[in-house]
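Model it.
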Amino acid sequence: MTVTVVVAWLLTAVFAVLVLPCVLRLIRLDYVRLGPNVRNGDLAELLLVVAMVAMASPVGAPIPAAGWQAILALTTGWFAVAWWRSRAEAAGSHASGCGHHALSAAAMLYLVTAMPHGDMVHGPWLTMSTMDTGLALPALAILGAVYFAADAVRSGFLAVRTRGRYSPGFTSRTVCRAVMGAGMGYMLVAAL
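Modeled.
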């Protein structure tokens, strides 16, 4: 693992800052009007941001790796089924959102599962910044990093180009997606 403690703290801070817009969207937005799919996406975004804070933190996370594996496996399954059900509907943006959340949760599940943990030094806690070996199946990490980097660039351009033109929370959602994608891509590459 080539993530230094300083970089790990910077990533932790950036991901922790992203918790605020996620929570604010959940508190302020009218999900009766926007629909349950938007609410589910915002809840997933909050869960994934908290998982990124836990993975990036140099002190580890209060939930053991097995707990994160269970949470992320359920999240992956939930959004994969939602993607499968909604892929044929006219609302393609919901299908792509579900697919992206399923891929994001699967990538985090891969990071948690493929990284070594459970040794006597760190116990069952996630501490990616102190890993001294790489991930299993590095080709998956490279594919994931390419996807998240491309999605981060696309989301960043979309956030700048459509600032304030769409539904409430759209800009916040796309900025969070861009930052999360860049962070996830970095973590996948750094863990090789």
